[in-house]
Design a protein that fits this description.
The chain is α+β, with helices and mostly antiparallel strands. The protein has four helices and five strands, in the order E-H-H-H-E-E-E-E-H.
Length: 94
């Protein structure tokens, strides 16, 4: 899949060095993935939260961080919306 918003991930990794390996691993897997339905994501990421409007929130580093994305399955594109701590996630509105 094509990932749009990598800059958000890179900037987050710079300020949260403990998540760098996990963010990089997620990015590598996402770019190699060919997800066609939300079920494809759940098969690999059982703890991912599937929201309305094709939004998916991934747990990063054992749920310490949350990665908010929007996925366009037919276009094979993921847009990174934001990434933050679990405490920040609790304040996000969708």
């Amino acid at each position: 899949m094509k990932v749009i918003g990598k800059k958000i991930l890179f900037e987050f990794s710079e300020s949260h060095a403990d998540a760098t390996v996990q963010v990089s691993a997620w990015l590598t897997e996402a770019e190699e993935a060919k997800w066609s339905t939300p079920n494809d994501i759940k098969a690999r990421y059982v703890h991912a939260s599937l929201l309305s409007d094709n939004r998916v929130v991934f747990n990063i580093k054992g749920n310490k961080y949350r990665l908010d994305t929007k996925i366009y399955y037919k276009r094979q594109t993921i847009i990174v919306k934001r990434i933050g701590t679990h405490a920040e996630y609790d304040k996000w509105t969708f």
